[in-house]
Amino acid sequence: MPFDADELENGARAATGLDDFGSPYYREGLERIVDALNTEADLNDIGRVIQHATISNALIQRLKVEETYRQHPEIDDEVIGGPVFVIGLPRTGTTALSQLVAADPQFRSLRTWESQAPTPPPEAATQHTDPRIAAAEAGLKMLDDMFPLMKTMHNSEATAATECQDLMGMSFRTFHFDGAVRAPGYLAWLMDCDMRETYTFHRRVLRLLQWHCPPTLWHLKTPVHMFALDALVEAYPNAKFLWSHRDPAKVMGSVCSLIQYVRSWSSDRDDPRELGAEQLDSWVEAVRRAMDFRTRMGDERFADVSFADLQTDPVRTLQDSYERLGLSFTDAASDAVRQWAEGHKPGSRGAHDYDLAEYGLTSEGVRERFADYLAAYDATA
Fold first, then answer.
1. pLDDT single digits (tens) 237-295
2. Which residues contact 304 (CB under 8 A, 6 or more apart)?
3. Which of 268, 326, 331, 369 has its CA at a distance of 20 to 30 angstroms from the CA of residue 289?
4. What is the pTM of this model?
5. How many CA atoms lie within 13 A of 89 on its CB side?
């Protein structure tokens, strides 16, 4: 049976007893990804289950967010501090950089367990014992058991900072859908769609999360923010950015390998050369847009972080980045960041092996496509 947007919505209504999805903005993205799942993704049986669960949860959480605001409209008065966003090409150390910032007690981060289920709003007194933590841990364990190679590619923990994909997914406008399944039609639409309401809904969820659970100075992360920084800053006028840099020739093979593995959960289709061309085009465009945004907005919002520096001296690297952005790097921050770094040494989760040539790419060809980026920033590591 094909996926159907109306049936998915009705299932979410039945699961919650709720009916208000808020602004109809989300619906076009839902219809686009449903069409891609039906016509482009070549889903296997497991993939149908995974994608049905992913879309259903996004709809369920959207309903619950809107219901929470209906009951507590005062949440809309919450003021978001910052935020500081970690951006950069995937596989450039964005996860490690994000976790280092999350260790700093002055920041509020989006944690995996609350990203997956933001309602009811978390409470400061129970944030470390909330039953959603155990549920998230069980889900991650099941994922590790089913797809064990993932542990060598990407680290996910229930209580650790995570990417913004769930929040953006509630508007059905996120590149993470393309990361999970082959969806070229959806990707082409996503490249040029209006992302402004995606970020206002993103902000809506952050307000809910901080309402009873401070601090209110936020740190957030995902490489896909680079595609729509103007829309992001419209929602967050005081946003600042930590931009991680690494040689794209060392990045793209890792990016493709990760996506190839994740897509293999949902589909038996395997065309690495198609994947290589798609991902290269997408991330060249992401960097082009981010560089254009930076040129227009000025360097004051940005601190550049070298992957090599992050690997060899993470504490000093973060301190320098804070100084660049006008942030305070306290003794408490230094101690917490150092402790996290000592417990998460590079390579401690095993080796992630990949071959750039498998994806029809060469180091020289990749660097040529990123020539403007390489000329502008230190990405030689």
1. 999 999 999 999 999 999 999 999 999 999 999 999 999 999 999 999 999 999 999 99
2. 243, 245, 321, 324, 377, 378
3. 326
4. 0.95
5. 31
d(CA 285, CA 282): 5
Q: Which of 187, 177, 172 is nearest to 50 (CA)?
A: 177
In a domain, 219, yes or no: yes
Whether residue 71 lies inside any domain: the answer is no
Q: For the chain, how many structural domains are there in total? A: 1
211 neighbors 78 (Cβ within 8 angstroms): yes
Encoded tokens for 313: 């001296």
Asked whether residue 221 is domain-assigned, the answer is yes
- Tokens describing residue 114: 């609350």
Q: 326 lies in which domain range? A: 82-170+197-376
Q: Is the peptide bond before 314 cis (omega within 30 degrees of 0)?
A: no
CATH at residue 318: 3.40.50.300
Establish if 261 belongs to a structural domain.
yes
Per-position DSSP letters for 201-269, written without gaps between them: HHHHHHHHHHTTS---EEEEE-GGGGGGHHHHHHH-TT-EEEEEE--HHHHHHHHHHHHHHHHHHHB--
Structure tokens at 237: 């006028």
How far CA 271 is from CA of 179, 259, 274, 275, 344, in Å, comes to 14, 12, 5, 6, 34
